[in-house]
């Protein structure tokens, strides 16, 4: 990869020049599909490296992800991408996904029979002892309460709280959603963050019965929940970038796009500093950056989309990684980690015992145990204003209390993700629909990324595919992106 302001010559079969703004996984996946579809592609990434929030570095000699550490294995898009890159055989799955929840001051197993914290098995819920006696007694009222009608979108807290009581929200649902969004149940959209539950709830008076239906319809053996790569998930963007370049595309880092304007023939981008700007012309553009910079770029040409994007809020967080001697734990953890509800009032919101969750890390250094602690929720930015040393001390204190760790770590690392997680607040789906409608009115323009239809890697790859298809349709007149038997993307003429 290079930061030089030159472009590769167009190949004879290229049908145009597309610029992808943003070198995260969505932008890179879109660029790969476009390059493999016969288009000359340039990726412009403002930071010094590609990958966005997918980054990995060594701590204590172990490659531990700084951002997302796993991709959902029950959606095909991300796994298909890895296989198309020729690394399908490298995929690894967790040794355990058994996790706990810290509730009423003690670690308790996550109750079976739940879907994103929404319970369906009342006996398992009682056995887990996550809820107080009063909170537990409130849950079965869902079976007899009148239907909770909803027309427009509602918050997770409003709907689930009305059906099952506030404790289910506080001690089960919000901690699980917090692992994805670091958000607040009072703000998060029921439709956007729990779409399967929201859809099922429309067909049942009881939320318990709706979740029972979801579980009954699930495959008996759905396979592993998560997957990653041995060198860390942060290696994936580099594999995709290399494939883009192998297909004739260019991937530039340190290339911040300052302005995006329509021209008679397509689009013109202003790149670099105001003192020494560079003009780049393109036939089409994919905007694959977070909502705030996307709003700034679209403000002149697509103000309706920009206004909606500017309303998407983001949460900040930090991940403190600690590598301990295995002997520091009087008893090695058996589960993959635990979640901490906000109502517990702790600094740390989630702990992952990485060396337990991922056997390849344990095999690489059996004498060490890597742990990741997440700190920060939406509205708690003050918690992240502390120094790295203070955040590390908070993580060490958490492990000393819950896991009785009595030694110092071998090495630590603090990674801060300021404004890293988009908040799917009430009305999010309608907001995204308005963004897409405004963008659709602009030929040769598409958007992609985590701000739209999901934060996970499969969802980001799916948004990349949709964006690439739209651009190829524009450039080819009647083009459609398809996958051949070899898994590669190509353009085919449509009728």
Automatic annotation (TrEMBL):
Domain (Amine oxidase): residue spans on this chain: 25-472
Pathway: Porphyrin-containing compound metabolism; protoheme biosynthesis
Molecular function per GO: oxygen-dependent protoporphyrinogen oxidase activity
SUPFAM superfamilies: FAD-linked reductases, C-terminal domain, FAD/NAD(P)-binding domain
Record GO biological process: heme biosynthetic process
Keyword Lyase: no
Cofactor dependence: FAD
Keyword annotations: Cytoplasm, FAD, Flavoprotein, Heme biosynthesis, Oxidoreductase
Protein EC: 1.3.3.15
Catalytic activity: coproporphyrinogen III + 3 O2 = coproporphyrin III + 3 H2O2
Compartments, record wording: Cytoplasm
Name of one Pfam family that matches: Amino_oxidase
A cellular component term, taken from the record's GO annotations: cytoplasm
Described function: Involved in coproporphyrin-dependent heme b biosynthesis. Catalyzes the oxidation of coproporphyrinogen III to coproporphyrin III.
Family named by the database record: Belongs to the protoporphyrinogen/coproporphyrinogen oxidase family. Coproporphyrinogen III oxidase subfamily.
Protein name per UniProt: Coproporphyrinogen III oxidase
Originating organism: Actinomadura namibiensis
């Amino acid at each position: 990869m290079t930061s030089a302001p030159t472009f590769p010559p167009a190949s004879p079969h290229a049908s145009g020049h597309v610029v992808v703004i943003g070198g995260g996984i969505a932008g890179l996946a879109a660029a790969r599909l476009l390059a493999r579809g016969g288009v000359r592609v340039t990726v412009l990434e403002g930071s010094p490296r590609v990958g966005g929030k997918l980054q990995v570095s060594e701590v204590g000699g172990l490659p531990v992800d700084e951002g997302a550490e796993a991709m959902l294995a029950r959606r095909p898009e991300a796994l298909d991408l890895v296989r198309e890159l020729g690394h399908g055989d490298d995929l690894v799955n967790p040794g355990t996904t058994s996790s706990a929840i810290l509730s009423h001051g003690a670690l308790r197993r996550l109750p079976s029979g739940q879907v994103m914290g929404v319970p369906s098995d009342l006996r398992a819920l009682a056995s887990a002892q996550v809820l107080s006696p009063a909170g537990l007694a409130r849950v079965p009222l869902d079976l007899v309460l009148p239907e909770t009608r909803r027309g427009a979108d509602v918050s997770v807290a409003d709907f689930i709280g009305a059906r099952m009581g506030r404790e289910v929200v506080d001690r089960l649902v919000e901690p699980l959603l917090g692992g994805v969004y670091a958000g607040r149940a009072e703000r998060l959209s029921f439709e956007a963050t729990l779409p399967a539950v929201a859809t099922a709830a429309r067909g049942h008076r009881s939320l318990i019965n709706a979740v029972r239906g979801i579980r009954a319809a699930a495959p008996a053996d759905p396979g592993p929940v998560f997957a990653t790569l041995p060198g860390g998930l942060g290696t994936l963007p580099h594999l995709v970038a290399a494939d883009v370049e192998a297909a004739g595309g260019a991937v530039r880092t340190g290339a911040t796009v300052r302005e995006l304007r329509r021209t008679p023939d397509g689009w013109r981008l202003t790149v670099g500093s105001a003192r020494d700007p560079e003009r780049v012309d393109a036939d089409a553009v994919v905007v694959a950056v977070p909502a705030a910079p996307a709003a700034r770029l679209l403000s002149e040409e697509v103000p309706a989309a920009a206004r909606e994007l500017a309303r998407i809020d983001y949460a900040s967080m930090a991940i403190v990684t600690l590598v301990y001697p295995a002997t520091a734990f009087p008893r090695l953890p058996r589960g993959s980690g635990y979640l901490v509800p906000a109502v517990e009032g702790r600094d740390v919101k989630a702990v992952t015992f990485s060396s337990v969750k991922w056997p390849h890390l344990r095999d690489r250094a059996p004498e060490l145990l890597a742990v990741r602690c997440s700190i920060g929720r939406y509205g708690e930015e003050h918690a992240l204003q502390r120094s790295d040393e203070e955040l590390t001390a908070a993580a060490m204190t958490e492990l000393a209390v819950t896991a009785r760790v009595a030694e110092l770590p071998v090495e630590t690392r603090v990674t801060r993700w300021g404004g890293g997680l988009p908040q799917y607040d009430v009305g999010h789906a309608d907001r995204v629909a308005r963004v897409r409608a405004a963008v659709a009115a602009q030929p040769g323009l598409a958007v992609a990324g985590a701000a739209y239809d999901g934060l996970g890697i499969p969802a980001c790859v799916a948004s990349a595919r949709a964006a690439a298809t739209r651009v190829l349709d524009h450039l080819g007149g009647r083009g459609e992106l398809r996958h051949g038997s070899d898994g590669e993307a190509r353009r085919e003429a449509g009728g």
